[in-house]
Amino acid sequence: MPRCDSSPFPDWSAKPTRRWRPFTLVIASMLPFSSHGVELDEAPLEAFLDRHCYECHDDTTTKGGLDLGVLHTDLTNTGTMQKWVRIFDRVDSGEMPPSKKPRPADNERTPFLAALSRNLTEAHQAEKGTVLRRLNRIEYENTMNDLFGTNLRLGAMLPEDGRSHGFDTVGESLSLSMVQLDRYLQAATAVLDAAIEKRTERPVSTVVSASYADTREADKFIGSAWHKLPDGAVVFYRRNGYPSGMLREANVRQAGRYKIRVSGYAHQSDQPVTFSIGATTFKRGADLPTFGWFAMPPGKPVTIETEAWIESNYMIQIEPEGISDRNNEIRTQGIANYKGPGLAILKVEVEGPITEEFPSRGHHLVFDGIDRREIMPRNPQDRLKTYYVPKFEIVSADPVSDARQTLTRVAEKAFRRPIVAEDIAPFLDLFQSELGDGADEEAALRAAVTAVLCSPNFLFLRETSGRLTDHALASRLSYFLTRTAPDSTLLASAASGALSRDPQVLRAEADRLLSGDLAERFVTDFTDAWLDLRNIEFTSPEESLFPEFDRFLQFSMLDETRGYFAELIRSNLPVSALVKSDFSILNERLATHYGIPGVTGPELRRVTLPADSVRGGFLSQGSILKVSANGTNTSPVVRGAWVLDRILGITPPPPPPSVPGVEPDIRGATTLRQQLEKHRNLESCNGCHRVIDPPGFALESFDPIGGWREHFRSLGEGEKVDLEVNGRKVRYKVGPPVDAAGTFPDGATFGGYLEFRDILAADQERLARTLATKLLVFATGREMGFSDRPIIDRIVKETAAKGFGTRDLIHAVIASEIFREK
C-alpha cells in the first residue's frame, strides 16, 4: 500500500512520492480554465441610467447601497453580475424607478432591457460551463459503499463541503484542499480493508439473548429506576439518564447488520406504549443511533423485530417515549406502588451478523479471476484456534495481466464509463513500480486500486462543455435521483446511445429510479438542502418555554417533511401542495402536537386533515418552523427571508452592515413586530423589509417548534397557565397576542396565515419556477443564471399544461437543455 510521509503536504518540486502520485492527476485537473473577461456594453444603457437612475444611485445618495458611478462592468465578477441582474429585474418588474418618480416610456424601457438582457445572457453563457464538480461527501460515501458492499461512515472522514444557498452540490463551493486529498487516501484504504476478506469461511450468525433482570445494572437500579415484575419483565416508567434502557449483555463485537427482537408488553395501560430501539456505547463523543420507534401493545407479550447496522462494541438501548410519572410520584410513593403506564421488557435478542454476500462485492471487484490463496500455517492445528487470522497470497504466472484485468474492472465501475488502455496505464505503472520496490502482488494491487479511487476520473463528474455524452448523462441522472453511481441498467441505456437519443428512454429511466429503493436518498438529500432540514439540530428549544418538545417529535418532524415531498412525487400532486393541501404525513406524536384527533401509533402515514385545519403544506410543518426559528423565539425577518428564498425564489439582499438587528423580548413586554415597525421607518431598511416581513408575519401563528399559537409564550409578564406537560406544571405564561396580518408590496393584504397560504398556493407558476430552479441547481451542480431563465420559463409552461404535477415538473427538468448539457 502507499507509504505515509512524515508531512501531509508533498514537495511538488520533487518527484512525487508513491503516496502522492494519484493526486498529481487531481491537481492537474484543477488548473484554472482559460476564461475571457466579458465586459458590459454600457453605450445602449447610459441614456436610460442617466435619465432615471443616477439621481438616487450616485456617490452622494447611494440609495439601497447602490452607486452606479462605481459599479464595475466586468460581468465575469460574480458580485458585479448579480448587481446588474438585480437592476434588470427591478426595472423589468416596474419596481424601479419608484412610483413617485417619472415613469420611463416604453420606447426607453424596452431597448434598455433588451440591451442589458443581451449583455447578461452572453456573459452567463460564456461562464456557466467551466466549473468542474467533484462528488460531495454524501455522494462519495454512497458510491464507495455501493461499489464495495461496505457500510462505512466515510463522509465523517472528509472535511465539510461548502454550500451555496443550502446546496452542497454546487461545484464552485466544493473546493479541494491538500487535507482533503489525504483524507481520500485514508478513506480508500479503509474501504479496501473492510471489503477484502480476511477469513476463509462465511461469518457465523449467532443469537444473543439478554434480560434487563440479569444485567449488571439490575442490582443497582431495580427498585429505584427499574421495576421487576413476577414474570421476570423489567418495567421502565420514563426515560432516565444512566442507565436508561442500556442493556450491556445485548452487545455486538463485530460491526454488521443485525436483527433485534424485543419481547414485552405495555404495563398498567390499556393503550400501546411507544418506545425506541437504538444503540449506545461507552466511547465518549460517539454517535448514539436510534433505529426506530415502535408501539408495544397491552395484554399478552409480543415480540417486535427490526433490522439495523450496528457498529462494534455497541449495546442495545431501549427507551419509552411519551410516558412519565406525575409530580415525581415514583420518588414519593415508591416504584412498587406506582400505578402509571410503563414499558415491560421480558428479553432482547440480537441475531447476526447477517452476511448477504461472501466474499463481499468489493472483494469480487478486486480479485475475480485472480488466484488468491490462504498461506497455510506451519502447524495446521493453528487454524482451529479462535485467535487464528489467515494470511493470503496471490499466485500468478502473469501479475501484470492480472493487474490489468482488475484495474480495468475497477476503473470501469469507478469512472462510470467504458475504459480504454490509456485510462489505466498510470495505475498499471504504479502497480509495477510497487512490485519493483519490493511489495508483494496483493499490496501492489491494493496500491493501484487505491490510486484509481483517488483519481479525478472518480472524484469528479467529468463533463465536457456542450451536450453531455450518454455516460455523463447517466451519471448526472443517477447522482440526481439515487445519489450514487449509475446501475447496470442505466449504463446499458447509455452504452446503446438511447439515453441521449430517445427522450422516452430518458423518461423511463427517470421513472424507474424515482420508483426505486434508492429514491429515498434523493428525497432526503434534496429536502435537507433545499429546506434546511440538516440544520434542525442547530437549536435546542428552551425547555421552560416549550416543555412538550422531545427527540421523538423532532424525528417525526423530519420524516413528515421528507415523506410529504415523496408523496407529492409519487402521486404527481400539483405544486400548490407545497404550501396548501388537505393531507399530511403524520403519526400519533405529530398529530397530538398539531391537535389532530384519530391518529394512533408511531408509524407515519398519509392522513386526511380536518376541513378547518391550518396544516397541509411545508410552511405548517414542524421541521420547517423549527429550522427557521432559534429555539426560544421566532423572527418575522428570518422566517420571511426563508420563505422568499426557499419557496418563492426571491433572494433578499443582506442587511446593511451599519444597521443593528432586532432582538426579541422573551419577557413578553413587546412583540418583535412592534419593534420592527420602528425599524422599517428607516429609509435604508424599508425597501427590503416591505418584501421580507409579510411572509414572516404570516408564520407568527406558529411557535419555534411548530405549534399553533394565538399568543406568544413569556417567561416574564403575562397570565399564568394551568397546564401540565410530562407530569410537570409548565412555567411559561400567556404573552402578547399574535398578529399574523400583513400587506404585500403590491398592496394586497391578508388577515392571517390561512389567507396568506391561499395567496401563495394560487401562484402555481411562481412555485413551479422556484422548485424547478432548486432541482436544477441540485442536479447540475451550478447556480442558475440569467441565460437559463428562458429554459426555466419553458419548463414551467410545459408543466402548467399538464396541471403543474410535481413528478411532471421533475421530468421536465430532466428533459431540459440545462440538465442535458454543461
Describe the model.
- The two termini are 37 Å apart.
- The strands form eight sheets. Strands 2, 3, 4, 6, 9 and 11 form a six-stranded antiparallel sheet that branches. A four-stranded antiparallel sheet has the order 5-10-7-8, with no helix packed on it. A three-stranded antiparallel sheet has the order 17-21-18, with no helix packed on it.
- Mean pLDDT is 87; it is low at 1-17, 24-35 and 665-669.
- It folds into six domains: 1-33 and 132-201 and 361-462, no CATH class; 43-127, no CATH class; 206-352, Jelly Rolls (Sandwich), CATH 2.60.120.200; 470-517, no CATH class; 533-762, no CATH class; 764-820.
- A hairpin with a 5-residue loop joins β3 and β4 (234-236).
- The chain has 822 residues and is of the alpha+beta class.
- It is 40% helix and 14% strand.
- α14 runs antiparallel to α15 (488-496), α18 (519-530) packs across α19 and α22 (636-646) packs across α24 (683-698).
